[in-house]
Amino acid sequence: MDFAFSDTQAAIRELAGRICEEGVEATGLARYDEFRDLRFDAGLWQTLCDAGLPGVAVPEVLGGSGQGLVELCLLLEAVGHSLAPVPALAHTVTGLLPLQRYATPALQAAILPAACRGERLLTGAFWQAADAPPTTLQAELQDGEIRLSGSYPALPWAAQADHLLLPVRLQGELAVVLLDRDSPGLTLTPLQLTHFEPQAALALEGVALPLERVVCREEAHALWDWVRLRLRAGLCVQQLGAAERVLRMSAGYTSERHQFGVPVATFQAVGHRLADAFIDVECLRLTSWQAISRLAAGENAELETRMAAVVAADTGHRLSYAAQHVHGGTGIDRDYPLWRYCQWLRYQEMVLGGAGQQLEIIGRGLARGEGLFT
Amino acid sequence: MDIRFNAAQRALRDELRGYFAGLMTPALRAECERDMGEGGGPLWREALRRMGEDGWIGLGWPESLGGRGLSPLEQFIFVEEVMRAGYPFPFLTTESVGPMLAEHGNPWLQETLVPRILRGELVIAIGYSEPEAGTDLAALRTRAERDGDGWVINGQKMWTSLAHFSDYIWLAARTDADAGRKHKGISLFLVPTSDPGFSCRPVHTLGGVRTNATFYDNVRVSDAHRVGELNGGWKLITGQLNRERLSLINFGPVSELFNAVHHWAAETDAASGGRVIEQAWVQQHLARCRTLIECMKLMVYKQSWAMSTGQLGMAEASAIKVFGSEAFIEIFRLLGEVVGPAALQRAGSPGANAVGGRLERLYRTASIITFGGGANEIQRDIIAAAGLWMPRSGR
Question: pTM of the full predicted structure?
Answer without folding.
Answer: 0.95
